[in-house]
């Protein structure tokens, strides 16, 4: 008979992740080839825009990371005073170029909620891959991808 424990333990979490990674690596020739290479390292990628009026006022920014030759856009935000002027597209474009030119990325991915920016990502060339309704309840999550070639 098994014993179950619902205590959150960082040590057990780390062990579970390590063992899943080992299992996945054994079962996938693609992941096995990726392990230990530069592409297997998650690298932060950020682009920040300061207010053109000067100073250090934050106008917007993108927080992302690169892994396995994919750009992952984790967060994108533009101050309301700067929306509609192309700043969001410029932030995404700069991140895409940086990911492609300096990290060899071939693709980009982003998730956005229905009330956030699905139309924006379509406008800047992303293709809808999947929709997850009620994540969280009452909201729809959208997954978009884009080729950077």
Walk me through the topology.
Blueprint lengths: L9 H18 L1 H6 L8 E8 L7 E10 L2 E9 L8 H17 L3 E7 L4 H6 L3 E6 L8 E7 L2
Parallel strand pairs: 3-4
Antiparallel strand pairs: 1-2, 2-3, 4-6, 5-6
Q: Could you provide a short overview of the structure?
A:
The protein has 149 residues and is of the alpha+beta class. It is 32% helix and 32% strand.
What would you note in describing this structure?
The termini are far apart. The protein is built from four helices and six strands, in the order H-H-E-E-E-H-E-H-E-E. The chain is of the alpha+beta class. The protein is 32% helix and 32% strand. The radius of gyration is 19 Å and the shape is globular. It has helices at 10-27, 29-34, 87-103, 118-123, and strands at 43-50, 58-67, 70-78, 107-113, 127-132, 141-147. It has a six-stranded mixed beta sheet.
Question: What is the overall pLDDT average?
Answer: 96
Helix % is 25-40%
Query: What does the overall shape look like?
Result: globular
Q: End-to-end distance, in Å? A: 54 Å
Give helix and strand order, one letter per element, not per position.
HHEEEHEHEE
Radius of gyration: 19 Å
Largest sheet report: 6 strands, mixed
Number of strands: 6
The structure class reads alpha+beta
Biggest sheet strand order reads: 1-2-3-4-6-5
What fraction strand? 25-35%
């Amino acid at each position: 008979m098994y014993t179950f424990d619902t205590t959150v333990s960082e040590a057990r979490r780390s062990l579970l992740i390590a063992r899943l990674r080992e299992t996945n690596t054994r079962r996938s020739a693609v992941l096995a080839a990726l392990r230990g290479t530069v592409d297997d390292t998650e690298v932060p990628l950020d682009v920040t825009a300061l207010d053109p009026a000067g100073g250090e006022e934050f106008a917007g920014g993108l927080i992302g990371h690169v892994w396995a030759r994919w750009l992952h856009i984790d967060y994108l935000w533009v101050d309301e005073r700067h929306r509609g002027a192309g700043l969001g597209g410029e932030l995404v474009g700069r991140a895409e170029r940086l990911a492609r030119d300096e990290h060899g990325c071939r693709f980009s991915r982003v998730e956005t909620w229905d009330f956030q920016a699905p139309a924006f990502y379509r406008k800047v060339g992303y293709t809808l891959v999947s929709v997850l309704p009620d994540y969280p309840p009452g909201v729809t999550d959208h997954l978009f991808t884009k080729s950077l070639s």
